[in-house]
Amino acid sequence: MSLAAYCVICCRRIRTLTPLPKSTTYWRDIRNLIKFTGSLILGGSLFLTYEVLALKKSLTLDTQVVEKEKMKSYIYVHTVSLDKRENYDAFSTVDVEDHECAVWLLLRKSRSGHRAARLQAVQEMSETHHWQDYQYRIIAQACDLRTLIGLARSKESDLRFFLPPPPLPSLKEDSSIEEELRQLLASLPQTELDECIQYFTSLALSESSQSLAAQKGGLWCFGGNGLPYAESFGEVPSATVEMFCLEALVKHSEIPTHCDKIEANGGLQLLQRLYQLHKDCPKIQRNIMRIIGNMALNEHLHSTIVRSGWVSILAEAVKSHRIMEASHAARTLANLDRETMQEKYQDGVYVLHPQYRTSQPIKADVLFIHGLMGAAFKTWRQQDSEQVLTEKILEDEASYTTCWPKTWLARDCPALRIISVEYDTSLSDWRTRCPMERKSIAFRSNELLRKLRAAGVGDRPVIWVSHSMGGLLVKKMLLEASKKPEMSTVINNTRGIIFYSVPHHGSHLAEYSVNIRYLLFPSLEVKELSKDSPALKTLHDDFLEFAKDKNFQVLNFVETLPTYIGSMIKLHVVPVESADLGIGDLIPVDVDHLNICKPKKKDAFLYQRTLQFICETLAKDLEN
Length: 624
Prior knowledge:
Layout: H1 2-16, H2 22-59, H3 63-71, H4 101-109, H5 115-126, H6 133-142, H7 145-152, H8 177-186, H9 195-216, E1 219-222, E2 225-228, H10 231-234, H11 238-252, H12 256-264, H13 267-277, H14 282-295, H15 302-307, H16 310-317, H17 323-336, E3 349-353, E4 364-369, H18 390-395, H19 404-412, E5 416-421, H20 441-454, E6 462-467, H21 469-481, H22 488-492, E7 494-500, H23 524-527, H24 534-550, E8 553-559, E9 563-565, E10 569-571, E11 585-589, H25 605-617, H26 619-623
Parallel strand pairs: 4-5, 4-6, 6-7, 7-8, 8-11
Antiparallel strand pairs: 1-2, 3-5, 9-10
InterPro entries: AB_hydrolase_fold, ARM-like, ARM-type_fold, SERAC1
Membrane topology: Single-pass membrane protein
Family: Belongs to the SERAC1 family.
């Protein structure tokens, strides 16, 4: 309006002015025109600026308002213990937008009274990858124990389903993790323990006391005299002390009442702190996982384990490319998952496939039993693993594998459950983990048979795959199972056995007890492998008759090359004649004793012949 009035006034002035000379009038008109145009441009610019700012303000979104709208879909659950939430309906009055209905419907479905509906809800959640972060948080906050564990055992689950573990309590003043571990161990019952548990406990407590004395400048008492502590004399590294304590706790966690004590004394939080502190130490993490896996065998502790944040850690670990880490996490999660699992996996029994929930029907079991100085994973790695870098493993798992049963066999026969067993052995009593441990083949076979039966072995057709002394354990287990009515299913469902260089008639190993570093004072396991061992001969004769009667299918492999034991001994551990069971094919292979069960590549004869035997022996069972 002001701009228009100004223009009218200017025009009137131009008309009312008296005539002037032509030149004067010309320049005056130009000046008036410039004033008019400038005013018009300035006013228009101000008007446009005002309109733009007004428009921008009207289009700006209040992000706080948006977040508040999103938060309408959150559920704020009262403090209720996880085991009481199973029948707790928290969804009857939730205010949700239309686009959020799918999330809440899945949550409600996951608490259905029908097991099939619950499983379907977990599967649909795990297969959903288009949600926003806050939608995953809704599930993480509102889901119950069964759903959370189910998501952790689902291969495609997004890790955003899992809330970070709750903050850990602070360490006591003037204390350390090492001292907290020692106190936890000292709080456990010390009576009615077997000799090995007593040994590991006393070792851990004594070593941690030495380390504590070193840290606090204490005195050693020797012969009644005070002797200043000499640091170079007996200082124990902190990580070593922690390993001693963890090994003792592993043994204690095999006793259910001791698991209750570990939980009550804050063991779950302390172990979690130690796990996060030693992410670069697989041995420490392995023992921690063993303890948590043993505690998970006790169903009344499941809610406490979940509430402490361990499921979030396990969900990440089970996806690890490191087979040991993934397998320990898979064992613990399987023990927590009572929705789909009836089996329980005790310490030393690891499922290599399937490690997640699967819709693939499992029709048979294949069990892998290692031999002397072996392990559940490293025994079954591909040959020449020490020359292959981790980066290459990650680049092409098909060209190299750290465990061929988990990768090659699982891919070729997905309908199999593949289990690997681990137990402690030693060549010499000097190198044994527990000096009081004198476990014969008979003792170990009963121990392993009990663990395998708890894992459901015998409920399906079974093939046993063994290396070295592991084959003797398999023979003894089957003979023991034949004497126990409750183990009859193990015998009835055994279809075949693969022996990799098993010394059915003994080995020369015990005779070479001259290398002071390795074989001085040979262990009981080595002594039982002697060619003149009466127990070995009885085992062979009894099993041969038994296997013929049951018509077991048998495949024998044997090495033809000598094996280096240390730097001084070159030994043909299992001669061809000793590997001959008397039934089944006997196939010599140009490798040494350590590599007889480690194929060079997937298309190597050693693996392909093994695969052929498994497929042919289980042909009828896999077709059904």
